[in-house]
């Protein structure tokens, strides 16, 4: 073989080797990994619970309809607009609903579907939707009902958000549970902060929480609302919120709060580009922490109503590498829709 061809072959081989080393470095960088002290505080347990991969879907939002059905929006054909769909997690069967667009909210049968620009449609899943354009590109909704909050004067009459008569922000809950009236300005007592739960029959129950309400969330399992640094039941019983996971709090910011499951708590932890190897889904039980998935958690549906299943989308490896430098969830081919059964393990 002529010398020039040998030199060309050597250059090609060297380029491939350097590219391979760069790729390996993107996959593993010891400077971003756990220290030995940190590793002693949790256990790697990828097979602790059975998992099931349901397909590759670039989902930013998904929720449970019931204990075996998810709702989300996606496009099955490249280049086509998304539609709202349901999936049976036992069979993987997909059903396309009558709603084209991006699912931005689902709660208690209500949905909000986003379209182009400031267009949003409100209504019941499977029913006719009403167009209500938003002024800032995002719908002003409460996640517990997929409806806007409203504002009331002291006598209960509705007023504009900026009215001088405004004394309450009202958060709609599930239809059967009524509403939550939060005083403005906040009313602090010796025991905490006041709010008023008004059930569907009109009965008012005063509740006291450790912190003011900034928002309200709903946990399908065990059927509790969250807000004011506490949980509360639909009947007004206030339950202390679980403590933060000390280990995860030390290594970075938690992505959301821990999700109550039937046998423990699940924490979705997404780290910054400089610490991506600490990302993953962590399970906490009886004071011990286990990492059950080391992927980047793109989105999650939370717990099913029986507290056993947790649905989420994940991306393997370093989500901040050269293939997805802008955002980890921009590359649908790398994202997997998963469910894990916390009751079997």
Provide the fold topology.
Layout: H1 3-27, H2 36-39, E1 43-44, E2 51-55, E3 62-66, E4 69-74, E5 83-88, E6 94-100, E7 102-107, E8 110-114, E9 120-124, E10 129-131, E11 150-152, E12 158-159, E13 168-172, E14 179-183, E15 193-198, E16 204-209, E17 217-219, E18 224-227, E19 230-232, E20 238-240, H3 246-251, E21 259-261, E22 264-269, E23 280-285, E24 288-293, E25 296-303, E26 309-315, E27 335-341
Parallel strand pairs: 1-24
Antiparallel strand pairs: 2-27, 3-4, 4-5, 5-6, 7-8, 8-9, 9-10, 11-12, 11-13, 13-14, 14-15, 15-16, 17-18, 18-19, 19-20, 21-22, 22-23, 23-24, 25-26, 26-27
> What value does the Rg take, in angstroms?
24 Å
Oligomeric organization of the protein chains = single chain
Biggest sheet layout = 6 strands, antiparallel
Average pLDDT taken over every residue: 86
In the sheet with the most strands, the strands line up as 12-11-13-14-15-16
Proportion of residues in extended strands: 35-45%
From the coordinates shown, what is the CATH architecture? 6 Propeller
The low-confidence parts are 17-27
CATH-assigned fold name: Neuraminidase
**What's the CATH C level?**
Mainly Beta
Number of domains: 1
The shape is: globular
* Straight-line N-to-C gap: 61 Å
Quantity of strands, as a count: 27
Overview of this protein structure:
- The structure is a single chain.
- The chain is mainly beta and 345 residues long.
- It has helices at residues 3-27, 36-39, 246-251, and strands at 43-44, 51-55, 62-66, 69-74, 83-88, 94-100, 102-107, 110-114, 120-124, 129-131, 150-152, 158-159, 168-172, 179-183, 193-198, 204-209, 217-219, 224-227, 230-232, 238-240, 259-261, 264-269, 280-285, 288-293, 296-303, 309-315, 335-341.
- The protein has a single domain (29-341), classed as Neuraminidase (6 Propeller), CATH 2.120.10.
- Helix content is 10%, strand content 39%.
- The termini are far apart.
- The model is unreliable at 17-27 (pLDDT under 50).
């Amino acid at each position: 073989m002529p010398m020039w061809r040998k030199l060309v072959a050597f250059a090609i081989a060297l380029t491939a080797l350097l590219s391979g080393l760069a790729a390996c470095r993107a996959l593993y960088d010891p400077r971003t990994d756990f220290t030995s002290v940190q590793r002693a505080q949790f256990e790697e347990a990828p097979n602790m619970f059975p998992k099931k991969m349901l397909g590759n879907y670039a989902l930013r939002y998904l929720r449970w309809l019931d204990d075996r059905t998810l709702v989300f929006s996606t496009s099955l054909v490249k280049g086509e607009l998304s539609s709202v769909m349901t999936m049976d997690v036992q069979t993987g069967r997909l059903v396309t609903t009558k709603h084209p667009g991006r699912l931005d909210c689902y709660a208690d049968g209500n949905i909000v579907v986003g379209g182009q620009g400031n267009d949003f449609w409100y209504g019941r899943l499977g029913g006719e939707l009403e167009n209500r354009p938003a002024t800032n590109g995002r719908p002003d909704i409460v996640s517990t009902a997929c409806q806007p909050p409203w504002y009331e004067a002291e006598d209960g009459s509705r007023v504009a958000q900026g009215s001088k008569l405004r004394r309450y922000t009202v958060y709609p809950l599930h239809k059967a549970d009524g509403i939550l009236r939060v005083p403005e300005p906040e009313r602090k007592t010796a025991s905490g902060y006041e709010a008023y739960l008004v059930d569907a029959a009109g009965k008012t129950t005063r509740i006291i929480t450790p912190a003011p309400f900034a928002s309200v969330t709903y946990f399908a399992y065990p059927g509790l609302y969250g807000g004011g640094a506490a949980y509360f039941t639909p009947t007004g019983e206030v339950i202390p919120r679980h403590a933060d996971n000390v280990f995860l709090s030390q290594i970075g910011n938690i992505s959301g709060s821990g999700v109550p499951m039937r046998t423990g708590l699940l924490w979705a932890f997404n780290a910054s580009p400089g610490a991506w190897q600490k990302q993953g889904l962590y399970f906490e039980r009886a004071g011990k922490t286990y990492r059950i998935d080391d992927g980047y958690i793109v989105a999650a549906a939370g717990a099913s109503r029986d507290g056993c299943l947790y649905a989420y989308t994940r991306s393997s490896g370093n989500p901040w590498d050269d293939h997805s430098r802008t955002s980890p969830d921009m590359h649908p081919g790398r994202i997997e829709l998963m469910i894990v059964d916390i009751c079997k393990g």
